[in-house]
Write a structure and sequence with these properties.
Number of domains: 2
Number of strands: 6
Distance between the termini: 38 Å
Largest sheet: 6 strands, mixed
Helix content: 55-70%
Structural class: alpha/beta
Strand order of the largest sheet: 1-2-3-4-6-5
Order of helices and strands: HHHEEEHEEHEHHHHH
Shape: elongated
Length: about 300
């Protein structure tokens, strides 16, 4: 039984880690992992910058657990800027500020190590200016354009450390001026995905409808032209793994049930046998048999025989 529980725990851990990832997860990481689209993202965030080129973009997304599998994240350097974008999909929580604090600290630590900067020397080192963004594609509406550690956790009191994050969502008016930019296209895609999955769940037909609606509405057209096959392959693999997991868990439940029945049957037989031998031992004693003879005839140990005969 312990082995079965261990195997189910492993499988459930896999399920939480992998199968939570959905269409939005894959599209977010795949879309903004392509340098061309990362550059489009930067231009959407900084339309005033006409000097930066695609060659100035360098992806430095963290491969750590600071932002767990429920949250997609993107980090990239652009000249003197360090831009971090985290997506919250369904549950809005200002705890993202603490996660972002960990994330930015780890990113700067790695930057210092990569550049071999001497933090113990007298000369001041140079690090890029952080810009922190949260893109929220869930249903809960918020008109906030920024949140800060000081305001959210310390009631606005002066603190020796602060983190400020800019919020990107469909209700943030300052972010919706250009409906054609890639940020708003992604938000529209996320809205379509939410609506279609609520209707029919996670199926290939659902994915086909999502992409068809995006094509009709002019949403991420170029991305889907280039990566539609990869999106379908990812999703088919996820569905296949999910079905395999369901079959495995059903098998485990059936085996566990069968083993429980077998153990119960064995326990019942043992109890019945004990009860029968108890009566035989008592009868043999009443007929004048001594303890060694009783043990020999019943197969009981001397201790068991004495217990039954007393």
């Amino acid at each position: 039984m312990a082995e079965i529980i261990t195997e189910m725990t492993k499988k459930n851990s896999f399920k939480r880690k992998y199968l939570k990832r959905n269409i939005k997860d894959f599209v977010f990481t795949d879309l903004f992992g392509i340098k061309e689209f990362t550059f489009e993202l930067y231009k959407a965030l900084h339309p005033e910058d006409t000097l930066t080129t695609e060659e100035d973009i360098r992806n430095i997304t963290q491969k750590s657990s600071f932002v767990n599998s429920e949250y997609n994240d993107l980090g990239f350097l652009v000249r003197d800027k360090l831009i971090i974008l985290v997506e919250e999909q369904s549950t809005w929580s200002e705890n993202i500020l603490i996660r972002m604090l960990f994330y930015i600290a780890e990113t700067i630590r790695e930057y210092v190590a990569e550049k071999n900067l001497n933090l113990y020397g007298s000369a001041k080192v140079s690090i890029p200016t952080p810009e922190l963004y949260v893109i929220y594609a869930g249903d809960k509406k918020t008109d906030k354009e920024t949140i800060s550690l000081k305001e959210s956790f310390f009631d606005g009191k002066e603190t020796d450390i602060d983190v400020r994050i800019r919020i990107i969502n469909t209700t943030n008016k300052s972010r919706c001026n250009n409906r054609a930019d890639i940020v708003n296209q992604y938000l529209k895609f996320a809205q379509i995905e939410n609506e279609e999955v609520r209707k029919t769940g996670r199926t290939l037909e659902t994915l086909q409808r999502i992409i068809a609606r995006c094509e009709e509405d002019g949403v991420l057209i170029e991305y889907f032209m280039r990566r539609k096959g990869e999106v379908f392959n990812y999703f088919k693999a996820a569905i296949s793994d999910e079905e395999e997991l369901r079959m495995y868990e059903n098998q485990i439940r059936m085996e566990s049930h069968a083993r429980g029945l077998a153990e119960g049957r064995a326990t019942g037989l043992a109890e019945g046998k004990t009860e029968a031998y108890s009566g035989i031992a008592k009868n043999l004693k009443s007929l004048g048999y001594d303890m060694p003879e009783i043990c020999k005839l019943t197969g009981l140990s001397e201790e068991e025989a004495k217990k039954f005969c007393n």
